[in-house]
């Protein structure tokens, strides 16, 4: 019990971020001031310091995303888990809503009929939302591929893409599609990510608005 640190419940998150800052210093990793609160929240969610070196941000990404949220942009996720993890009450304060079409019966039927993934059809449904949309993708690389194909064909241009799907099949390649595009993005290079990571990024963006 000698190594147990007593921290009152309301101070646990604050102490966690202090530990993250200390660990980064020990590892001689200095995060960019404009993006450090996002990266630190991802590390806080995952306890994985690899994110300190693999997170990629387009120019002024955090500023762009926060302006979108402040102006009422919606968020679309590729899992209900990510949707559940985003602070919807805080998002609504700025006029935004959050959507996930993955469990929609119409999406499932259309995906089966066309022989494509539900994630692909979900992105097509999301493209019909008549306002700027931030896409938070933490599970399905096909969602990113679908978004990029619509962009390449000049059918639809996402306002912002958070691309952190986890896995092995097409995950790395799907993320890389956006790295040289003119779509504002937050991407984690490599195989790591997940619904919890995409939700954490959304919350970090929302909480950091001043």
Q: What this model shows, in words?
A:
The protein has 210 residues and is of the alpha/beta class. The chain has a single domain, classed as Rossmann fold (3-Layer(aba) Sandwich). Helices cover 50% and strands 10% of the residues. The chain has eleven helices and six strands. It has a six-stranded mixed beta sheet with strand order 1-6-5-4-2-3, sandwiched between helices. The chain is globular and about 60 Å long.
Provide a short characterization of the protein structure.
With 210 residues, the protein is α/β, with parallel strands linked by helices.
What share of residues are in beta strands? 5-15%
Helix and strand pattern? HHHEHEHHEHHEHEHEH
Number of strands: 6
CATH class type = Alpha Beta
Could you list the spans in which at least 5 consecutive residues all have pLDDT below 50? none
Q: Termini distance?
A: 41 Å
CATH superfamily: Cobalamin biosynthesis CobH/CbiC, precorrin-8X methylmutase
The profile of the biggest β sheet is:
6 strands, mixed
What do we call the CATH topology? Answer: Rossmann fold
Counting helices, strands and paired strands, the structural category is: alpha/beta
Q: Strands across the major sheet, in which order?
A: 1-6-5-4-2-3
